[in-house]
Amino acid sequence: MSATIRNQQGSDPLLDSEGPGARALGPRRDSVAAGGVGGPGDVALAAVNFHILSACDARCDFCFATFPGVRGRLAAPDARRLITLLRAHGAEKLTFAGGEPTLHPDLEGYLRHAKGEGLVTGVVTNGSRLQPLLARAADAIDWVALSVDSASEATQRALGRGGGDHVARAVRLSDLCRAAGVRLKVNTVVTSLTWEEDLTELLRRLAPERWKLFQVLRVEGQNDGRVERLLISREQFSAFVARHARLAEAGVTLVPEDNDAITDSYVMIDPLGRLYGDTGGIHRVGPSVLEAGVDAALAAVGFQPEKLRARGGLYDWAPPRRHLPILAGRPTRPPRAGGGYPPG
Question: CA dist 128 to 57, 100, 168, 173, 175, Å?
Fold first, then answer.
């Protein structure tokens, strides 16, 4: 059985931008580990990020997962087979990312397949199309990670994210996630435009369980030529983290990751089903997992399990006990003149 790469087709021009149609990848040569599903000690594949497509409806200058050389994506049957293979090798949590994963027409099916395999599921999203996904498939989503980089709509726009309503939408979506029983994270990339900012009030309003803070990272071939104006020092990043330390008193777990912590600490799969890592400021791409098998593909990239542990990548990610019916979102009011956010 061969894996195929599917062209981005359909009426959405964002999905038509990723290149030519399907092609064969060759015979399947995976080798599922003896003993079946791994346990909590199998750190290497405990948590996997699957970047299911490269298309995105934002243009963030700092993005280091743009995949400019990737044409197309795995066909749905092969993506499901990949999910099954990851679970058989001990994966516990599978996070769907992009690009913008909610643009993928098969995302709901992938989430349900992953849940059926016993995986904890997550979606990293800018939120532009999250509400309809929650309405259809909240029961298949354990975690949502909302990407929010500033409390200022103008700064969000300057960074390339949102059309002037990104922050207000994130507030509304945080409420919808809680109403649906979906656990919430916030992802923030700290840049030269934001490192002096205080996001305390916004994060209290969003009230995520985890707040992941990333020092903006230059990756050759992904964001070079655009990101340089946004780079900051480790000291500037540390100052931003320290400014928000008291959020722990509000139940928000801060998870700061400087450039060193980010690199080689994630198991990531690109839209073609290849493991890759960020090593030395460049993507290090391995072979197709479906062609070479999990072990060989993982050995070809620079993943370091001890760095996963060190950055706090192993935590209580158990799915919520139950999902509640999704509640209709109320129109989100803008922040009050005094800077406060609506209580919801």
Answer: 8, 9, 12, 10, 15
Q: Are strands 47-51 and 267-269 parallel, antiparallel or unpaired?
A: parallel
Q: Which of 15, 25, 53, 56 is catalytic?
A: 56
Question: Does the pLDDT value for residue 2 go beyond 50?
Answer: no
Active site residue 177: no
- Res 149 pLDDT > 90: yes
3-class DSSP assignment, residue 156: helix
pLDDT of 208 above 90:
yes
Domains in the chain, please, with CATH?
2-26+39-310 (3.20.20.70)
Of the residues 60, 88, 144, 267, only one is catalytic, namely: 60
pLDDT band at 289 (very low <50, low <70, confident <90, very high): very high
Tokens of 320: 């919520």
171 and 146 Cβ atoms separated by less than 8 Å: no
pLDDT of residue 211: 98
Report DSSP letters for 171-232, one per residue.
HHHHHHHHHHT-EEEEEEEE-TTTTT---HHHHHHH--SEEEEEE----BTTTTTTSGGG--
Query: How many Å apart are CA 146 and CA 185, to the nearest integer?
Result: 6
The predicted model gives 157-174 an average pLDDT of 93
304-327 average pLDDT score? 75
Catalytic pick from 48, 63, 171, 219? 63
Tokens linked to 165: 């309503």
DSSP 3-state of 267:
strand
CA distance 173 to 270: 27
HEC string for 79-136:
HHHHHHHHHHCCCCEEEEECCCHHHCCCHHHHHHHHHHCCCEEEEEECCCCHHHHHHH
The pLDDT of residue 43 is 64
Q: Is 63 a catalytic residue?
A: yes
